[in-house]
Every structure is written in C-alpha cells, then in structure tokens.
Amino acid sequence: MHNYLDFEKPISDLEGKIHELKKLASEDESIDTSDEVTRLEIRVREATADIYSKLNAWQKTQVARHPQRPHFVDYANALLTEFTPLAGDRKFSEDAAIQAGFARFRGQPVAIIGQEKGNDTKSRLKHNFGSARPEGYRKAIRIMEMADRFQLPVITLVDTAGAYPGVGAEERGQAEAIARSTEISLALKVPIVSVIIGEGGSGGAIAIATGNRVYMLEHSIYSVISPEGAASILWRDSTRAKEAATNMKITADDLKSLGVIDGIIPEPLGGAHRDPQTVIAATGDMIANALSELSSRSGEQLRSDRRQKFLNIGRNL
Fold first, then answer.
1. Residue 1: inside a domain, yes or no?
2. CA distance to 63, 84, 205, per residue, from 156 (Å)
3. What would the pLDDT profile of 195-209 be if each residue is shown by its tens digit?
4. Closest C-alpha to 31, from 43, 20, 15, 41
5. Helix axes 299-312, 174-187, angle to 10 degrees
6. How many angstroms separate the CA atoms of 93 and 283, rounded?
7. Staple partner for 156: which of 108, 134, 194, 234, CB 3.0–4.6 Å?
C-alpha cells in the first residue's frame, strides 16, 4: 500500500474503493467487479495527472521527502555492477550517511558517492536519515582524490535535508569538511555528474553536488536551507514553511530557469515512488549521456568549465 500525502486524498479514496472491490471479488467469485474497477482505475489516472500537473513548491517538497521514494541504494543496485563500497575517512570513523566507492556504470569504471536516508526505522538510524557528519564528507574527499588519481569519472547522487548539525559534528569541523569537499570537487580533472534524487539541502548537498553537470528529478528540491529552517529564521515560525518554499524557488523548474541546474529528469505519474524502475532507468540514461558528452574534454577544460559554471550562477538574471 502507498503512503499517501495530504494532497493525494482524492487518489487515496479512489484506490481504496478499488482495493475493496478486488477484495470483494476474491472472496466471492460470483461477483464481477472488473468493469467498475476499470472505471475507477481510469479515474485514478485522471485524478493523479490533474493533481501532479499543478503541484506547488510545498507539495513538491512533500513528494521529494516521500518515505517510499527510491534512495541511493536503489539506484546503486539497479545501475551499478561490481560496486565496491569503501568506508572511513582515515581520520576519525565511518559515516553511513554517505555511501561511496567504485563500480562499473554500464561497463565504465566510475567513482560513486551519495547520501542514503534508509527505508525503515533501523536503516534510517544507521544512516542518520541521510544527514552526514564531517567524517562522511572526508570520506567523500578521499574517494574523489582517488578518482582523480586513477582518472575515473565521478557520479554523485544527492538526497539530504542537510549536514548533521549536532555538537559533536561541529566540534570535529563540519563546516571545514563541507568546504574542503566543495573545494576538491572544483579541483578535479575528471568529469563529475551530480543528480539531486530527493532533497538537496544546504551545504550538505553542495559538498558533493559541485559537478560539471547537475540534474534534478522532476519533483526533487534543491535549496540553501529547508523551508522549515527558512521560516524559523525569517518569521520565527516554522509553520510558515509552505510560504517559505514558494518564495525560495526550490523546485527543478525554478532552478532550471535560474541556470542553477542543467536539466530535469521526468518522473513517472504520481512521483518516483510510484514507479522506481522507470525513474532509475531515466536517471541512468541522463548520466550516461552526460559522461559521453564530457569524455572528449581534457582535465584542465573539465576543471575550468566546472569552476566557471558555478561562478556564472546568478550573473545573468
């Protein structure tokens, strides 16, 4: 069963009726509900198309955070072969919020880095809900430096509400680790392709999203702070998160028009959680096309283009 968002009540009601009819037919074979089920399924598709064609920024935020949305591990399992995860930052400890290592992507050796939120209580606690500590970013730095040394493209999958803000993380240099990860990203002489697959929150996202090509899934979000955080700072009222989301321009369409990202990956009707295989395949195609396009460029050109890309953000508005 789906976890329905609050604005999906019309869909929930219709699919609830379909479930009841199918259950009734299974319990009594003399009852034929197929015509009514077909009619309701058409209405579900129409209602879903209507609702998702006019989502506002706050509703897209809810979709980006959907608990059944595919996460890093789902993309890695579907798109990678021979994935060898590496652990630890060689300074303090391992941080499971960031997953990283080396693999083959459609036969090509690559480095892969991404945030993993987890999909149940146990795994969410293990991965700290995708909010990395300093050692997670230092692990990412280690992987990127190795990728540069061995001339391997870097793929990053971004999905975090933000870096972990706890006291221990701050004591161990959270800001410095994020800044260093961003700095290393800008310095690499290999292609970097980044995809925001859910939430792209604050420095926790940009630390691994400083790529030659940056893409977003259609219903993902990307911002300097969460809507709740912005509302708390601006109005001292986190309940105004919906208003903040609208004003912050955090959706894929907004950011594409502002030149912050390079492209948008369409999601299946009803969001990525409705058809993970389709959206993962589309993401793989987008990454493959980007790597193919960037493969002919020299290391110096890749580094120069990447730096210029981020320097240009906001200049032509």
1. no
2. 21, 15, 10
3. 999 999 989 999 999
4. 20
5. 120
6. 31
7. 194
The mean predicted confidence, pLDDT, of the chain is 93
Q: Same structural domain for residues 182 and 113? A: yes
Q: How many other CB atoms are found less than 10 A from the CB of residue 32?
A: 10
- Residues 223, 197: one domain? yes
- If one compares 119 and 28, the residue with the highest pLDDT of the two is 119
- Nearest to 200, CA basis, from 260, 133, 267: 260
SS3 state of residue 262: coil
- Strand 192-201 and strand 80-85: the pairing is unpaired
What's 150's DSSP letter?
T
Q: Does residue 32 surpass a pLDDT of 90? A: no
* Total number of domains constituting the chain: 2
> What are the backbone dihedrals phi and psi of residue 61, each rounded to the nearest 5 degrees, phi first?
-60, -40
pLDDT tens across 125-163, in order? 999 999 999 999 999 999 999 999 999 999 999 999 999
Check whether residue 142 and residue 206 sit in a common domain: yes
- The answer to whether 133 touches 172, Cβ cutoff 8 Å, is yes
DSSP-based three-state secondary structure for 216: strand
pTM exceeding 0.85: yes
Identify the bridge partners of residue 160 per DSSP, sorted by sequence position.
200
Could you tell me the two tokens for 63?
Answer: 């979709």
pLDDT band at 23 (very low <50, low <70, confident <90, very high): confident
Domain span at residue 34?
A: 6-54
Query: How far apart, in whole angstroms, are the C-alpha atoms of residue 301 and residue 303?
Result: 5
Treating both helix axes as pointing N-terminal to C-terminal, what angle do 227-235 and 241-248 enclose, rounded to 10 degrees? 100
Q: What is the CATH number of the domain that holds 275?
A: 3.90.226.10
